[in-house]
Amino acid sequence: LVEAAAVRGDESMVITFWPHPRNVLQKEARTLRLLTTLQEKKQMLHDLGVDHVEVLQFTKDFSSLTTEQYLRMLMDRYGARTILLGYDNRMGSDANGADQVARIAESLGLEVIRTDVVPSEQGFAVSSTKIRQRLEAGDVQGAASMSGYEYSLHGVVVAGNRIGRTMGFPTANMQLYEPLKLIPGNGVYFVKVETVGRNLFGMCNIGHRPTVSSGNARTIETNIFGFDEDIYGLDMEISFIAKIRDEIRFDSLEALKEQLAHDRDTCLGLL
């Protein structure tokens, strides 16, 4: 998109919708989890060199636009001259596929650029669905190989039960800013940590803490290596590098402490 706009002497624009169409149309809305928040998406696109990121409010009335009505709106409102279509784009209330959209766009005087499938290292088509599946399985490295970046979670540090501190492994418990953000599968991960203006490393446990808790609440708690400052109420972002192991229940806190020491050594070995 950026390269094509530069060649033509035009500006590049990405149109995105908020809230997510599935939430408005109630199609699988209960299971919808986002790979990026709206702010993350906008920042990533700008970092790639996109000139404009336009966020359109998605409503049921908006969803009734046909392909032709939507394309005319892009031309009238934004002066669109060229449209880039993915290989499997669907558009409009008439649910036209990429071939039909291309024909309608060209009939309106729009130049159409078509993109091919982006294959993964294993040869299958990269898609948000496959990235979600990898993350839910804990395969953060596989997800990163498809998305091109390490998956991250962003939130505020909240108070926990401080059991980790008594074992010499103080943890920062995170509450996500975006509750619909997808959380990787339960387990222990090697992570990068950004907080109080510093870039650090640590290990993050996602799950139900079966050794120290009988509740069903799922937590995100991170032990930051070489860091023991009070950061309750402060901003923190963690980026997932690799999964170390599954979450398991230990017979004693001492056994858990020994495993945490082993996990830390494993993570430091990956550095």
Percentage beta strand: 25-35%
Cα distance, first to last residue?
Answer: 36 Å
The number of distinct helices, counting runs of at least 4 residues, comes to 10
Strand order of the largest sheet: 7-8-11-10-9-12
Q: What multimeric state do the chains show?
A: single chain
Global Rg: 22 Å
Question: Biggest β-sheet: count, sense, barrel?
Answer: 6 strands, antiparallel, barrel
N-to-C order of helices and strands:
HEHHEHHEEEHEHHEHEEEEEH
> What is the residue-averaged pLDDT?
92
Question: Based on helices, strands and strand pairing, what is the structural class?
Answer: alpha+beta
DSSP helix fraction = 25-40%
Number of strand elements: 12
Question: Which keywords apply here?
Answer:
10 helices, elongated, six-stranded antiparallel barrel, 271 residues, two-stranded parallel sheet, alpha+beta, 27% strand
Question: What does this molecule look like?
Answer:
- Helix 7 (128-136) packs antiparallel against helix 8.
- The chain starts with a helix and ends with a helix.
- The longest helix is centred in the C-terminal third of the chain and has 18 residues, at 253-270.
- The strands form 4 sheets. The protein has a 6-stranded antiparallel beta barrel. Strands 1-2 form a two-stranded parallel ribbon.
- It is α+β, with helices and mostly antiparallel strands and 271 residues long.
- The radius of gyration is 22 Å and the shape is elongated.
- It is built from 10 helices and 12 strands.
